Automatic annotation (TrEMBL):
UniProt KW Lyase keyword: no
Similarity comment: Belongs to the RLP family.
Keywords of the record: Cell membrane, Glycoprotein, Leucine-rich repeat, Membrane, Receptor, Repeat, Signal, Transmembrane, Transmembrane helix
Domain Leucine-rich repeat-containing N-terminal plant-type positions: 30-67
Disease resistance R13L4/SHOC-2-like LRR domain location: 238-398
Signal sequence extent: 1-20
Domain of life: Eukaryota
Name of this chain's protein: Leucine-rich repeat-containing N-terminal plant-type domain-containing protein
Keyword Cytoplasm part of the UniProt annotation: no
Subcellular location per the Swiss-Prot or TrEMBL entry: Cell membrane
């Protein structure tokens, strides 16, 4: 096969010279050529995309066209990954001897069925239209005309509205491989009008990544010759039926990421030919059957993330051919002995995620040399296990949250010197990093007890997380020493340590950084203007240090910057405004900024969160605030700013959360004047906090249009007048504080206003009605004064703690969804697509969390 392909390739390359020199070579058939030209007309910009397809030339020398070497008839058309856009006219099938058609990995958007609906195109054996992501196909009837089809691949094209895909494919006894992965199919049950499926030759069936929600269909168990089944990433339910045993030739069974339940049956051990078994991410319970040790052909076994309990059977240690083993789950528990691994001499990757302990002799020599080892949430420590030092071929080593508190520094750093990915997160490892040079591309070393000064890094390091340790000393040696000049760092997190000193002025060597997190340290002094040279910066966090002076960085040329947090420092001067249009989240609270809120803020067009909480700002709110499109605009565009999510769980969640909320917090300042009505037209806002200022005037009726508002705090101002009725139409509102103003009249009767605690209306002596214990009679006067102190002391930070608490709960929930995503950059694109799918669910989740949290808060008051 391989050699044939290369010969064809050679022919293709040589073809023009061969043919131009002699008349003996067969020329392309005229009919074939005109069918090809019809196809060509459907390709947008075809003269550019298919320049060799000119009418003068022999069509056998056109790009992708292969002719028979003696008859000159076209037999293959192979145009995969040619960036072709447009329509596919299946009149191509009229090319009489065409046996191979591959148009995969292009951008075709429509398909024209063959015009002759009665013809049979009996020579076509291979058809691949996969990965034309925007190709919608409503009708597959024409498939029945391909009577000799052996390979059919329609993966990753849109068959969403296709209800009879099974009917159209099922009567192809010649079919060897059928791939319909990620094609948005909904139903895999056989329709009543169809008596049976005849896939009597089928070897490979790939239906992964669709929306199948039923149990495994019974027709599957009649596929007597089937060897590979992939139904992963669906919503398939129910237990594994015993009829699966009738598939005696099964080599690969991929059922991971479904909703299968029941136990993993003992009979699974009878599948003697099985090489690949994927059952991860399902709802299987019970224990792992020891018969699994009878699967003597097994190479790949994945059964993590289920509801399995108990210990592992020692029979696993018999799987001599096993290369990949992944087992995990929250209720798995027990002790692993040398027996569990005794014959695993071919094992290359071992992934265990469960509360296992290990009872292995200290001089145990494992039978394997691993390329990858991941043991998490286990009891590996307290010492880093000796046997891991015998593994010299590791590419990744991950032991997060595994109770390790000490390493043998000499051996450990030598072991990991050439490892690509290292994770030691969430242990209690104590080691001095002062003289260590880190060398792995991805290093997760957060949440330990590493001490000493910041380590050195080599040019290999791309991602480094050292947060939540006990590193100390000034940061400038790390940034300014010459060893760092060749760095390729993209992500650096040294937050939550004991680091000191000023922010250095050596940023010219760190231009590649996209993410820089230095919060929760003891950094001092001013921020040098050279920090504005981070052209690739996406996120910068410096909060909770002792930084001071004007924050005068001109960041307006950093056109990817989306997030800046400099809260809780001593910055002074005016509010920084030299920000790029890309800026989404600006957290400037708890500093000493003074003067007015500059109207330039309104030009930051991507802004979705602005926090100026607790500064010394005065004057009015600029009315232009409603010009910020993501706060005021009618259209809600969703933002997923933090692609580095892929790397790191904790951080991702914190900011994913920020990314979804639209908030404006101007509380705790000296702002005054009336609240401009424009503020109440920020209809995208979810949280508005103007409390603890000197605002006067009435609340505009406009407030009723802030349909997304979930939290509103106007407390401790000098607002007056009646609370507008329109406020009761804010149906998401779950936190409201209007206390300590001078509102008058009745509290509007609305669905949720009466459910808030009375303290949220306290300190308005002329306000009446539920939930206040004051009836709205004309003479109700000043009753209620005596109750007004209740809520005062804790109202200030309520909103903030509300969101902090929500962030955490949200984090846990969200990570559950995306927990198994891989870490490399190439996955970003897919990941973002994935997020788009779940966006609505996320939002719902946020709302639920807020409601829940404010519930607790109300009851604790
Ligand atoms: C076709 O060519 C025009 C002009 O060069 C270009 O603007 C357009 O984007 C091209 N279309 C596609 C689909 O490549
Ligand atoms: C034509 O191809 C066949 C195999 O496809 C090969 O056996 C034969 O030698 C080839 N003939 C010429 C003239 O290249
Ligand atoms: C597709 O090809 C057929 C010729 O077989 C032709 O009649 C038809 O017009 C083509 N369709 C389009 C949309 O170009
Ligand atoms: C589509 O499936 C066929 C047959 O299984 C396979 O040879 C081909 O590589 C697949 N195409 C892509 C783009 O993966
Ligand atoms: C599928 O059908 C629905 C409703 O009939 C329609 O709204 C949708 O656009 C169709 N989708 C495709 C890809 O044809
Ligand atoms: C399935 O197709 C094969 C080959 O055409 C044929 O021999 C067999 O009888 C068919 N089976 C059924 C149940 O129709
Ligand atoms: C690491 O790689 C370097 C160069 O590839 C090699 O010289 C060195 O021996 C390796 N070190 C270890 C501990 O494998
Ligand atoms: C680091 O290296 C320097 C110079 O070799 C040495 O003086 C110092 O004691 C070392 N520090 C630690 C913590 O190992
Ligand atoms: C961290 O290490 C320091 C010094 O090595 C030690 O005093 C401290 O107790 C350790 N903390 C924890 C939580 O292990
Ligand atoms: C921003 O870019 C412009 C145009 O390249 C340049 O003139 C200006 O000096 C830059 N500003 C800063 C602060 O780097
Ligand atoms: C409020 O009115 C209700 C009846 O409408 C009455 O039972 C209650 O005593 C009144 N409360 C006060 C404080 O006047």
């Amino acid at each position: 096969m391989v050699s044939q392909t290369s010969i064809l390739l050679l022919l293709l390359i040589c073809a023009p010279t061969l043919y131009s020199g002699t008349d003996l070579q067969p020329r392309c058939n005229e009919k074939d050529r005109s069918s090809l030209l019809i196809f060509k007309r459907g390709v947008v910009n075809h003269s550019k995309k298919l320049p060799s397809w000119s009418s003068e030339q022999d069509c056998c020398s056109w790009k992708g066209v292969h002719c028979h070497n003696t008859t000159g008839r076209v037999t293959r058309l192979d145009l995969n990954q040619q960036y072709l856009v447009g329509e596919i006219n299946l009149s191509l099938f009229q090319i009489q001897f065409l046996s191979y058609l591959d148009l995969s990995l292009n951008g075709f958007t429509s398909l024209i069925a063959p015009s002759d609906t009665h013809a049979s195109f009996s020579n076509l054996q291979f058809l691949d239209l996969s990965f034309n992501d925007d190709l919608h196909v409503d009708n597959l009837h024409w498939l029945s005309q391909l009577s000799s089809l052996k390979y059919l691949n329609l993966s990753q094209i849109n068959l969403q509205n296709q209800t009879n895909w099974l009917q159209s494919t099922a009567l192809h006894p010649s079919l060897l491989e059928l791939r319909l992965a990620s094609s948005r199919l909904n139903d895999m049950n056989i329709s009543p009008s169809m008596k049976y499926v005849n896939f009597s030759s089928l070897l490979t069936l790939d239906l992964s990544g669709n929306n199948f929600k039923s149990e495994l269909p019974s027709w599957l168990f009649n596929l007597s010759s089937i060897s590979n089944i992939d139904l992963s990433f669906n919503f398939i339910q129910g237990p594994l039926p015993k009829s699966l045993l009738s598939l005696r030739n099964l080599k690969s069974l991929r059922l991971n990421d479904n909703e299968l339940n029941g136990s993993i049956p003992e009979w699974i051990g009878q599948h003697e030919h099985l090489q690949y078994l994927g059952l991860s991410e399902n709802l299987f319970d019970g224990s792992i059957p020891s018969s699994i040790g009878n699967l003597s052909s097994l190479i790949h076994l994945e059964i993590s993330s289920n509801l399995l309990s108990g210990n592992l059977p020692t029979s696993l240690g018999q799987l001599l051919n096993l290369k990949y083993l992944s087992i995990g789950g929250e209720s798995l528990l027990g002790v692993l002995y040398e027996n569990h691994f005794s014959n695993l001499s071919n094992l290359e990757e071992l992934v265990l995620s469960a509360a296992f302990s290990f009872d292995l002799a200290s001089d145990w020599m494992p039978p394997f040399q691993l390329k990858g080892l991941c043991i998490k949430n286990a009891n590996l420590g307290p010492k880093f296990p000796e046997w891991i030092y015998t593994q010299h071929s590791l590419v990744y080593l991950e032991v997060p949250n595994s109770n390790i508190s000490s390493i043998n520094s000499d051996m450990f750093w030598r072991l990991v010197a050439n490892i690509t990915q290292l994770s030691l997160s969430r242990n209690t490892i104590s080691a001095d990093l002062t003289n260590i040079t880190l060398n792995s591309e991805l290093m997760f070393m957060d949440n330990n007890n590493f001490t000493g000064e910041l380590p050195r890094i080599s040019a290999n390091v791309i991602y480094l997380d050292l947060s939540h340790n006990s590193l100390y000393g000034p940061i400038s040696p790390f940034f300014c020493h010459k060893f760092g000049r060749e760095n390729n760092l993209d992500y650096l997190d040294i937050s939550s340590n004991l680091l000191t000193g000023g922010v250095p002025d050596c940023w010219e060597y760190w231009k590649g950084l996209s993410f820089l997190f230095m919060e929760n340290n003891m950094l001092l002094g001013e921020v040098p203007s050279s920090m504005a040279t981070f052209i690739d910066l996406i996120a910068l966090d410096l909060h909770n240090n002792s930084l001071s002076g004007n924050f005068s960085l001109d960041l307006s040329n950093i056109t990817n910057l989306e997030f800046i947090n400099i809260r809780q420092n001593n910055f002074s001067g005016t509010v920084p405004t030299k920000m790029p249009h890309s800026m989404e989240v600006m957290l400037l609270g708890s500093n000493q900024f003074e003067g007015n809120i500059p109207p330039q803020i309104c030009n930051i067009s991507s802004l979705i969160q602005l926090d100026l909480f607790h500064n010394n700002l005065s004057g009015p709110i600029p009315p232009c605030i409603s010009d910020i499109p993501n706060m005021g605009g009618a259209q809600r565009t969703d933002h997923y700013p933090f692609e580095f999510n892929l790397y790191n769980k904790g951080r991702e969640l914190e900011y994913e959360d920020y990314g979804l909320l639209r908030t404006l917090d101007l509380s705790y300042n000296n702002l005054s004047g009336e609240i401009p009505p424009q503020v109440f037209s920020l209809i995208q806002l979810q949280s508005l906090n103007l409390s603890r200022n000197h605002f006067t005037g009435e609340i505009s009726r406009e407030i009723g249009s802030m349909k997304n508002l979930e939290s509103l705090d106007l407390s401790s101002n000098k607002l007056y007048g009646e609370i507008p009725d329109s406020i009761s139409s804010l149906s998401f509102l779950s936190f409201l504080n209007l206390s300590y103003n001078d509102f008058t009249g009745p509290i509007p009767v609305g669905t949720q206003l009466q459910s808030f605690n009375a303290s949220n209306f306290a300190g308005n002596p002329r306000l009446c009605g539920a939930p206040l214990p004051i009836n709205c009679t004309v003479e109700s006067g000043n009753v209620g004064e005596s109750k007004q102190d209740d809520g005062r002391k804790d109202s200030a930070f309520e909103t903030e703690s509300l969101y902090l608490g929500m962030g955490f709960g949200f984090a846990v929930g969200f990570w559950g969804l995306s927990g198994s995503l891989l870490l490399y950059r190439t996955w970003r694109h897919m990941y973002i697509q994935f997020l788009n799918h779940v966006a609505d669910q996320l939002h719902v989740f946020v709302v639920v969390m807020i409601n829940k949290f404010s519930g607790t808060q109300a009851s604790s008051n």
